[in-house]
Every structure is written in structure tokens, then in C-alpha cells.
TrEMBL record:
TM ranges: 6-28
Alphabetical keyword list: Membrane, Transmembrane, Transmembrane helix
InterPro entries reported in the protein's UniProt record: Sec66
Name of this chain's protein: Sec62/63 complex, subunit Sec66
Annotated PANTHER family: TRANSLOCATION PROTEIN SEC66
Coiled coil spans: none
Pfam families in UniProt: Sec66
Chain intervals for the UniProt region annotation (Disordered): 189-226
Biased composition (Low complexity): 210-219
């Protein structure tokens, strides 16, 4: 005869153990998701997306319908901002992984970065869909045009920084040159004053020598008469 009591106890123990593990796993994932949602976003507000969505969903009572040309320009501006964010994510990933492996940053920062990666991927897909809704096939080329605009913006920003730096360096050099010139003139005035004092000493020292010469000339005739 089978002893059902001896079989029920192990199965009950396994059931309780599996239930506890499932409950713990569910609570852990929920807590992790809640913590990730409470973390500060990697990027700030997406101004280009907000402007585009505001224009796209503008109510008729708020004004006339927004022309498609304006919506396309707003979508392009949104795509340009996406390119800037995508470049930042790609440039930061390798350095952040290295810091994470060395323990220099915490898991919270890595979770923020991973969430930013997922957000930018979803954003790119949304922009492609919006572009294709305006013109079929535009979604395949919109980011190429946005990348060119983003590169031009970075180039203009770099040129502006160089010009500002050049103006600062020019002002510093003008001030430095004025200081050097003032110090040189001060040294020149000091040298001229010293030369004048030396000339005065020589003149005063040469007075007795000139007065002694006539006395010797006057004494010579007396020796001839003798």
C-alpha cells in the first residue's frame, strides 16, 4: 500500500518553495522596474518632439490647420535632435561600460543609460513612421538629411568657439604687449637717467685736470730764463 502522506509532504514542500520563489521573483522585478522608472532620465526634455507633436495635434479651435510644410520642417528638426542624442549615446557607451567594469559608477547610471538607448530606438522608429506618412520613402532618407544638418550645426558651433577664443587671446595679447611696452619704456627711462648721472660725474671729475694744465705751461718759461 502506498503511503500517500509520505508523498504529499515533499510535493507540498516543493509547491511552497516554488511559490515563494515565484513571489520573490515577481516582487523583485516589480521593485526593479519601479526603481528604474524613478531614476532621472539620461536626456532632458525633447524640445523638437514636443514642438512637432504640439503642431500635429493642434485643435481647430486653437487656430488654422498647420501646413504640411511646417510639419515637415518640425519633423526634420526633431530628427536632427535625435541625431545629436544618438551620437552622444554611441560615444558614451564604451566609456560607461569600462567605468562600470571597474566599479567607478553604479548600476543606477547604467540602468539610466540602457533606458535612454531604448527610448532613442523607439524615437527613431517613430520618426521614420511619421516621415513615411507624409511621403512614402521619406523615412529612408530623413536621417541622412538630418545627419548633414547636425554636422553643419556642430561645425558652426566649433567655428564660433574658435572665434570667441581668438578674440579672448587677442585681448590677452594686447594687454600683455602694453605691459611689456610699459616695462620697456620704464627701463629705458631708468637707463637714460643713469647715463645722465654718469656724464655729470665725469664732468665734475674733469674740472681739476683742465685747471692744472695751464699751471704747468706757466712754469716752463721760468726754467728757460734760468
Amino acid at each position: 500500500m502506498v503511503d500517500w502522506v509520505s508523498l504529499v509532504v515533499p510535493f507540498a514542500y516543493l509547491g511552497v518553495l516554488i511559490g515563494s520563489l515565484a513571489t520573490f521573483s515577481h516582487l523583485y522585478r516589480a521593485r526593479k522596474a519601479s526603481k528604474a522608472a524613478s531614476l532621472a532620465p539620461w536626456f532632458g526634455p525633447h524640445l523638437g518632439r514636443n514642438i512637432y507633436l504640439s503642431l500635429l495635434h493642434m485643435e481647430p479651435a486653437e487656430g488654422p490647420k498647420v501646413p504640411d510644410s511646417v510639419l515637415k520642417a518640425a519633423l526634420m528638426r526633431r530628427a536632427v535632435e535625435d541625431i545629436h542624442r544618438l551620437v552622444e549615446v554611441r560615444n558614451s557607451k564604451q566609456a560607461l561600460q569600462s567605468l562600470l567594469q571597474r566599479g567607478s559608477v553604479g548600476d543606477d547610471l547604467w540602468q539610466r543609460f540602457q533606458r535612454a538607448e531604448k527610448e532613442i530606438e523607439a524615437e527613431l522608429r517613430d520618426v521614420v513612421q511619421e516621415a513615411n506618412a507624409f511621403s512614402p520613402g521619406w523615412g529612408q532618407t530623413i536621417f541622412q538629411s538630418a545627419s548633414e544638418i547636425a554636422q553643419n550645426q556642430l561645425l558652426q558651433q566649433r567655428v564660433a568657439e574658435i572665434q570667441a577664443q581668438a578674440s579672448t587671446e587677442k585681448a590677452w595679447w594686447e594687454k600683455k604687449r602694453a605691459t611689456i611696452q610699459a616695462d620697456f619704456m620704464k627701463e629705458l627711462d631708468g637707463a637714460q637717467t643713469k647715463n645722465s648721472d654718469d656724464d655729470a660725474v665725469l664732468v665734475e671729475g674733469g674740472g681739476p685736470a683742465t685747471t692744472g694744465a695751464p699751471q704747468q705751461q706757466q712754469q716752463r718759461p721760468k726754467s728757460r730764463d734760468n
